[in-house]
Each structure stands twice: as structure tokens, then as C-alpha cells.
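User: Batch of two.

Assistant: Item 1 of 2:
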Amino acid sequence: MAVGLAFMITQAARAQTQSGMSEAEIDALAARALEAFRVPGLSIGIVKDGEIRHLKGYGRRDVNDGAAVDADTIFKIASNSKAFTAAALAMLVDEGKISWDDRVGEILPDFRLYDPYVSREITIRDLLTHRSGLGLGAGDLMLWPEPNKFSRDDIVRNMRYLKPASSFRSKYAYDNTLYIVAGEVIAKVSGLSYEAFIDQRIMKPLGLDACFAGPISRKAMRNVAKPHGIIDDEIAVIERSVINNEPIASTAAGGLRCSARDMLQWVETQLNNGLSPDGVRLFSAEQSREMWKPHTIINVSESERARDRTNFKAYGLGWRLADVYGYKQVSHTGTLAGMLSYVTLIPELDLGVVVLTNGASYDVRESVMFSLVHSFIDMPQTDWVAHYQSRRQAEEEAPVDPGCETSAPAGTEGVAGLYEDPWFGRVEIADKEGALTFRSEKSPRLAGTVSFCRQPSIYAVRWTDRTLGDGDAYIMVETDFDGKVTGMRMARIDPEADFSFDFQDLDFARVD
């Protein structure tokens, strides 16, 4: 009897949740966040107990023309695309066409990794769980910055040149390239391109008319957000990252484009274990449990422990998993140049929240999401906009100065030439009227000026496209005993820059 009473008391305590923020409170939150962190617009969607609690756009789609964001404005959802890739594979598992533990090499014979053992043993499940042994963001320079000239065949073939950073299945390290491989598994098994499978087998049955893997309809293109960043202290459109119908290689990892309204339909389907609000069965409850099951352990930070009383974090299949004040949380973020997204589900509360933004500020995404989700949980409430404003002020520093000289010392003319990396391909350092320039053959956006920095062999490249500014890089020239240049290595100047600038994985040999 005492045990039963204790159970009832525990359940009653767990049921003490809050009702969430009012519409006026959400409006005020959005307005404050946009102003504080200099982001033009965002969309917010909340579904609770099967009903849409809030669905609204804020601010502008384009800082230059003033067009308003609404619930149907299309944003890039970036890595929230990964859950769609996992769901597509789950559907094929349900159909008996694959199993999660099928070996990838038996489906894609041209796919290999650096280690022959890993090449032989890696499974479909491994492609989705960030435990392959590759380093953080390995190979991302084949995906971004867009546009570039790497095809999916190039990416699959080039995976064999990426050296591991840890042993197989021993460590979490987020990657994107293996999701491209997963997309090619879907294409090979289904007989459809990745984009066609997602659009025909997921978007269409769910009625997602403003959510696209492939070409966006002409009607939908009238309501798309443009990506923005802070360039020379001004809010500006990042033109290279605008939404268009040009095909890209990275769709399965981060290339889907959706509205907040359609994302809520997707979230409801997830909360219903694969059954849409309209009664369409997309994937089975069994596969839902598989996708939401911990596969790879992730370290819990002190800030997460303090903020959410988090005891565990893990990666499932296309989703991050954690506990927040005793509730299981299923979530993911998405980050591309000028567009960020965040999706959070609390299954026990039948709660789903979507935040889509067209700015480069992590602070907007985090402050809005934490405020909304926490408002439904009986926990200390925090002014997250004020919190992130204070943190930003404390962290503000002068731009990272590589300490480079405007003129190179005598004897550096031998640096000019052609260099080749096994997976990234060729780059040229050219001497043009006494100034060195850098140009990538397969990633044309990576072009800039090269300056001498320090010691006899350290240089820096400053990208001409300043939307890539945090990815400026060091170049270390390698020579033989006679002083002849034989190759070069690269590294980010700013260690806090986006990990997708994985210059550390490049190893160039001089080829001219």
C-alpha cells in the first residue's frame, strides 16, 4: 500500500507542469530576441496535446524589402533534415527492404572508409549515430560553402581518404558526410533519388505543401526567407546561401526547406509514433522507438546540468536525446550560413516546439526555444534573452588577429604552385604581381589573399567572401631538407569557428 501511495505521489508531482506562455508573452519574447540579437525574422510553432497552441511568423523575410514572415514562410531547416533521412530508412526497414544492421558496403560497393575493418563492418545504423571514428565535421569542406563542384559520388568515394580520429564505435563526433552516404543507401534501395523519395513518400502523404527536399513549387517560392549575417557590423543577406532550386549534394544531411506550419505536422507525426494527425501511417511505432533509443553516449556539460538537471545525453537515429527535469527530451538543431532551426519534443507532455530563423545568431534560437519549452515544465523560469545578452557582452572580444605581415620576406616566392589533397582536390596558390592568392578548384568560394604570418613557414588566407570570415585559415608550408616546398597543411585561425571548416583534415602535396 505504501509503495502504491509513493508511486501515486511521484506521478502527481510529475504531472505538475505549467501551461506555457500566452500569445502576448510569445509575441513579446520574439520581438525582444529579434532586436537583441539582430536577426530579421523567425517563425514559431507549438503543438500541445494534439492541438496547435501557437503558429506565427515575426519580423521580415528579407532585411532589404520588408516582406513579413508568416507561418508558411519557408526556411532552410539544416540538420533537422537528418530526422527525415532516418525516417526514410525506418520506412524501408518496415518494408523489409533493409535492416538497421545491414552492412553499407554490401549496398554501396564503392563506399569505403580509411580502415578496412571499419569499411567491412560499418552498418546503416552506424551512418546515423556519429560513432564511426571520424573526427568532428570530417569532410564537411566537400559540402560547404555552397555552391561547389563536389557530387555525391565524389563524397561517397572520398570517404576512404578521411583518417579516423578515434576507434570505431568508441566516441561521439558529429558528422554530416555519412548522412550523405545514408541518403545514397535510400536511393539505391528504393530506386528513387533521395529527394524524390522524401518528397513522394514523406512530404506528399503528410500533406506538407511547403516542405521540400527537391524543387520548390513556383507558388511556394513566393514566400521564402533569405539568410542573413552580420557583415562589417551590418545585417546583410548571405547571397551564396539563398533558397533556390539548384541541386545540392548535402540534402540528406542538411538540405531540406520547410515552413513552421509543415514542421508542426511533422512534429505531430513524430509525437504519434509515425501516425500523422490525418491518420497516415508513415513508419511503425517499433521504428519510432528505435529512432528515439540511445545509440551513442554524449557528454553532459555543466551548463546543461545546471539549466535542465540533465543526467544523460545520447544520439539516437537523427535525433538528440536527453532528460530535462525528469522528462525525456527529443530534439535537434540545424545550422547553415544565415539560417538556424531548432525542434524540441517532450513526448510525456505531448509537446512539440519549432523555431526557424533567418539569421546567424545562435542566441535567438536558444533563448526562444528554452523560454518556450521551460514554460511548460514546473522548473525555475529564466529570462533567456537577458541571459544570452549578458553572456554575449562578457564574451565580446576583438576579432582574432593572426598577426600577419603585409609583405612576405625574401625567399617565399617558392610557395606559389599547385597543391592536391586526396579528397578535397587541387588548390592553387598564385603569385600575382607580388601578392599571393588562394583558389580551390572544387570549392570556388574558398578564394582569398595569402599573407605571411610568422616563422619561416606560417601564412594565413583571408577569404574574399567575408561571409566566410570566421573560417579564415592558417597555412603551414612544408619543405624538404633543401628548402623546396613539398606540401602544406591548414588550420582554422579562430578555434571557435564553425567545425565544418575542417581544414585540419587536409594534407596537401605539391604537384607542379
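Item 2 of 2:
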Amino acid sequence: MNARELSAAIEAQRPAIAEAVATRQYAEHPELRERYGPVGWQRTLEDASYNLAFLAQAIALENPALFVDYLGWLKVVLLRRRVRLQDVLDHFAYLQDGLRQSLPAPEAAAVACAYVAEGVRRLPDLPDDLPTLIEGNAPISLLAHRYLQALMRGERHVASRLVLDAVTQGTPVKDIYLGVFQPCQREIGRLWQTNQISVAQEHYCTAATQWVMSQLYPYIFSGEKGAGRLVATCIAAELHEIGVRMVADFFEMEGWDTFYLGANTPTDSVLGALVERRADVLGISATITYHVSEVQRLIQAVRAAPACRDVLVLVGGYPFNLAPDLWRRIGADGWAPDAQTAVERARELLAARRPA
């Protein structure tokens, strides 16, 4: 059984394994019902399912570091919600037993359990908390701090005025994107991860930032076009769209004609947009590791469509930053860690394709 077959087998058995893990953990540790309340079992079931999804993706990509990184994120989430580390370690022991009992071949189970065991081995040494992502006394950092505080108070109009005033006073829009929006979005994610804000607050802040970004469009869409044509999208099921929207805006500021599709876009719609817009480059974003296979499937669909055979594919997002060679494995033409680098990389790819 190869890596992709093993990944598919885990996905096929994911609901059954997750339920077996949650049921066994609560059967052998009845004190958990009192410790974590009436929703504890359901949360354990959901966590087991997510754990298996991330494991399956790491195996499919043959990259144990992706699973270890996920466990580092999960550790902070759970500890800040008063889940004991020993309960987490017990959970993964039951998870390995579930894999051994459910997978069709002992050698396949051994591979899957090795991924889990490596993550668990490193878990105690991974950080328990995360430092703030907005620091320093540079003017842009101070603006980011004031902007975030306005969002935390629910004052999106104040946040917008801070940004618009900075731009009218000469701060480049790109600096606002890279020095305010990007670190604030990351800080908002950290605040949720460390249980300092709710999901509702996180969603409000993200929606507010998207609204503030729209206030800057007169500065973004006013230039001449002709550098190239970009279609930018998230794959189906990916709802984290603000990063790829920032990328599309950077292309627009660099003279590209852009067509931004947003989150959760079906493959047929992406292919149709590539043809209709006569795109030179398709930019695809994925924030969550277990969506990388969806990115690969979209790339395969683009390659298989005769009308799209000349489209260059550029990928980005957290999993690709974590594993910089991942883009090659899934068949993309290039990868970029941030919006400005994405523009530069697309320019290089087009230049390499065009005759001298």
C-alpha cells in the first residue's frame, strides 16, 4: 500500500475510528465527563476526526513535519482551553490502537502509527503558548496595534479611518497590507488559538478587515493594466480567503488584470473563469493542511483541460510556507510565501515562457 492508498484508507475509516477513540477514552476515563462537561465527548469525537484528517494528509504528502506542526497548533488550542496534556497523550494512544484495528494491513497501520508516535514524542517540547505577532515601535507597527484595538472594540469605522488617514498622509497601500492587515490577521488567529477571543470575534475582525480593504480599492484599481491576467481563488471547502484576496490586490497594483473568485469555488467555475478571462496565471491558496489534496486535484483538472494547458499555476498559503518543496509535489509551476513574492514569481514564470 503506497502513501496515497494509505491516506485514502484512513479517510474511509475516519468516522468509525474517531467514534471508537472517543467512546473508548470516555469508557476508560469516566472522570472526563465531569472534567469537561456534557459537550466533552462530542468535542473529543470532533478532535479525533480532525486529527485523522491531518494525519491522512501528511501521509499522502509523505511529510511527517506537517502532522507535527498541526500537533503544535493543537497543543496550544487544547491547553488554553484547560484540557490536560495527559488527556491529549491518552487520546493519541487510543488513536494508534484504532488505526491498528481498522487499517487493512499491519504494515500500513505501522506507517500511520509511526507518524502519530513521532508527533506525540515531540509534543511535550512544543510550545504551550504563543507570543504576540504585533511588536516593535515602528510607525506601521503602532498603526497595526491601534487598528487591532479598534477591531477588538467592534469599531470598524474607527479602524477604517486609521487606515485611510495613513494612506492619505503618504503611507503606501502595500505597506498597509503587509504591515497592518497581514500581522493583524495573524494576531487575530493567535488570539483565537489561545482562547482570548471567540469565533464570533474572529469572524467579525476578518469581515471588518475585508470591508476596510474595499475602502482602498480607489487606490488599487486606478493604474494601467497590461502586465498579465490573473485568476485567484481558494479551492472548494477552503473558507480562509483574505490571504488570496491580498495577493490579487498586489497583482492589481502591479498592473495585472485580476479576477478574484473568493472562497469555496467549485472546480468547473475556476476552469470557466480561466478560459473566459484568458488567464496567464492561476493563483491558488490553501490555509489548512488537509486541503492540499484539493489543490492538487484542481491543478490536475487545469492540466487536463485543453483550453487551460498554457495557464501557469502559482500556489501559496500556510502549508506551502511550512514545506517549501510541497508545490513541486502537487504539480504547480511555482510557490510564493507572500503577496509581493507572488507577483515577482509570476513575472519570472511568464518571462521564462515568452520568447526573447
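The mean pLDDT is 93.
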